[in-house]
Amino acid sequence: MLPKRGKSLHSDSGMKNFYLLKITGNPFTPRTLAGASTPTKGIQLASPWQILAGNLAVVALFVLGWAHARYWLRATPKRYRVILFGLTMGIGTIATMSMAISFDQGVFFDLRSSLLVVTAFFGGLPAALITTAIALAYRILLGGAGIYGGTASIVVASLLGLGIRHFSRSRQIGAVHLCVLGLAAAFSTIVAKTMLPGGLAATSLTMTSLQMLPLNFLATALAGLVHVQARRLGAERDLLAAAMAQTPDYTYVKDRRGRYAAVNVAVAKACGFDDPADMIGRTDAAIQTRERALALHERERKVLTSGESLLDHVEEIPGHGWFSSSTVPLRNSAGEVIGIAGVTRDVTLDRKLQQELIQSRDTLSFALQEMSDGLAMFDKHGRLVFSNAQYRQSFPLSGNIRQPGVHMKEILRSVVESGEQLTVPERNTASWVNKITGNLRVESEEVVSLYDGRWLQIRTRPASTGATLVVVTDVTRIKHAELALHSATDELKELVRTDSLTGLLNRRAFDDTIENEIRRSSRSSAPLSLLLIDVDRFKPYNDHYGHQAGDAALRRVAEILKASLKRPADVAARYGGEEFAAVLPDTDEDGAYLVAEAFRRALAEMRIDHRTSERGYLTASIGVATYMPEAGQRSSAELIQVADEALYSAKAAGRDRVFGKRVASSPERFAKAI
After folding, report:
1. Are 119 and 161 in contact (CB under 8 A)?
2. What structural domains and CATH numbers belong to the chain?
3. What's the mean pLDDT when you consider all of the chain?
4. Starting at the edge strand that comes first in sequence, how are the strands of the sheet with 337-346 ordered?
5. Residue pLDDT, tens place only, 500-529
6. Hey, which of 66-80, 381-395, 580-594 has the most confident mean pLDDT?
7. DSSP class of residue 106?
8. What is the DSSP secondary-structure string of 300-369?
9. Residues with Cβ < 8 Å from 305, sequence gap 6 or more?
10. Which of these, 169, 227, 386, 646, could form a disulfide with 623 (CB 3.0-4.6 Å)?
11. For residue 302, how far is the Cα from the chain centroid?
12. Shortest CA distance to 113 belongs to which of 71, 150, 168, 69?
């Protein structure tokens, strides 16, 4: 009597119809394989975990197989590669469903969700539709009570993969994406379990969550990682292949026997081949002349035996030009030399330009060495680009630092520190350095004196490129002649106009000065003031201290008077004997009083000993006369007379004081004592 045929309940993928044969008292547990059940007494079948390992191996086989096939299909149009990807992964899902694992109570498990999620994520909608259709067709063909859960898991897995792809399109694929894919595969498995009938769903979910879901997660993540690495390696290979094929230089790779393993288009065309593939496996002996082949073989043999690179080897190939070659050894992971790689560049034009440049440089160098002037070129940033020997020799103390690359500010600081240039200001040298550096941008010309008595004319000529040409000429002889002429002229003028004792203007120069100022102030209606100064009790001072001390005192008074005149236009003069005068153009009575009082106070504060004076020290009385702007007719005699009257009033009032009077067009006189 045949046993009663029963129907199994399929979870997760619901693989196919299995028949459980219930034989009363049978001591073994029957297992169904390949769609039909045949109880076999006493035979130990493979455990579920061994079959599960085989299921995982199927997933790995298809994923790794596609990863390798993808590179060989790189020349195939993308739409065809997507179709092939979908078909391959669809066959993989059939393989995983064919090796489903049966656990207790007829619950089956496989890794189809891993392939479905990965296909949808990496292949997009076309590949997902193909794989899903194949998986659904096979699952429906199998039938069984778990058909609804199995088909639902297939659809959910594909949809989840597409959804993750949509939200990750603009991001780089990383570990997070792979983890999400693994969770999606596990979730689709749970969906299948929830659709099992009766209480079997709860039991299946508990078992799967504890045992099977981590494996599904891991299989999906690893499959995704393989796809990511395959894409990355494929992109790198494509990039390297494109770089080698499209570079304009001659690029090639050879094995240890000198056979070409890879060449680019430039090498193939140079050797007379239309397709680089035609050169693969050939040696130079079959392509080049015998002499050329031997030369190349000897050079490459040295690289292979020594393991050292030969870089920038320049040689002339008759009839073709000049070429620069670099050959490097290629090593495997063990460090063994397995071949060579070479790059050759046509440098014929560079060689010609280099020769022309050398000739031009030699010509220019000869001209610069023979010229008498110093020549230097600074770039737009102020750094020295070039200088001839004459330029450096013109500056004995800073010539060593005037080298290409040095900034103008560094050169000028060296000039300041060494004291090479006498025209450098003693204070605020930083401003002087900045000023001279700024002059590089404008056309200028100046003459400077050096510590050794030489004079240099420095001319700057900015160029349109931003650079500046500096020309240095020794003008010492010309400058000495000029200085001698000026010195003689100035000495003559000084002898005629200067008081020999005090260094101030003498009486004759004073008369000329006040006449000129009277005329100028009359034309411009400007105020004009005059100070007449008399040293108090100076005759007794001479009698008591002697004439030499008196002369020294007068020189000291002259120095204090000059220091009290703050404006360049103010003029001090020795009026006669112990009397002094000061002409103050454009100064009203108040300004004149301030100057006079400043002088009086400065002299008094010096406390020059004068025992025969009322104060006990040297003092002075000062008379001030002023033409105000409204004054019409003006004369020097009237101005001097009024100042003399004011001086007399100051003496009469007790000396060591200032008295002033305004000279107006009306006879009114204004006096004020300070």
Report:
1. yes
2. 48-238 (1.10.1760), 247-350 (3.30.450.20), 371-479 (3.30.450.20), 498-673 (3.30.70.270)
3. 80
4. 260-263, 250-255, 337-346, 321-331, 310-317
5. 899 899 998 999 999 999 999 888 889 999
6. 580-594
7. G
8. HHHHHHH---EEEEEEEETTTEEEEEEEEEEE-TTS-EEEEEEEEEE-HHHHHHHHHHHHHHHHHHHHHH
9. none
10. 646
11. 42
12. 150
Which of 481-485, 550-554, 599-603, 626-630 bottoms out in mean pLDDT, i.e. has the lowest?
481-485
CA distance 188 to 190: 5
| CA atoms of 592 and 660, how far apart (whole Å) | 9
* Token representation of residue 433: 């350095």
Beta strand segments in 140-281, E: 250-255, 260-263
CA distance 93 to 222: 16
Distance CA 149, CA 13 (A): 7
Burial of 604 (0-12, 13-18, 19+ CB in 10 A): middle
Lookup: tokens for 201: 């769903």
What does the DSSP assignment read for 446-483? EEEEBTTS-EEEEEEEE-TTS-EEEEEEE-HHHHHHHH
For residues 42 and 28, the answer to whether their CB atoms sit within 8 Å is yes
**What's the CA gap between 395 and 387, in Å, rounded?**
12
Confidence tier at 280 by pLDDT (50, 70, 90): confident
List phi, psi (to 5°) of 295.
-65, -45
Report the amino acid identity of residue 434.
N
Q: Is the pLDDT of residue 667 over 50?
A: no
- Nearest residue to 576 via CA among 524, 606, 532, 618: 532
Global pTM?
0.41
Residues 6+ apart with CB under 8 A from 562: 504, 572
Long-range contacts of 446-449 (CB under 8 A, 24+ apart): 447/475, 447/479, 448/421, 448/422, 448/423, 449/421, 449/422, 449/423, 449/479
DSSP letters spanning 589-639? HHHHHHHHHHHHHHHHHH--B-TTSSSSB--EEEEEEEE-TT--S--HHHH
pLDDT bracket for residue 103 (50, 70, 90): low
CA distance 283 to 256: 11
Q: How many angstroms separate the most distant Cα atoms in the chain?
A: 170
Helix, strand, or coil here: 579? strand
Structure tokens at 218: 């891991």
pLDDT of residue 61: 80
Count of C-beta atoms within a 10 Å radius of residue 45: 13
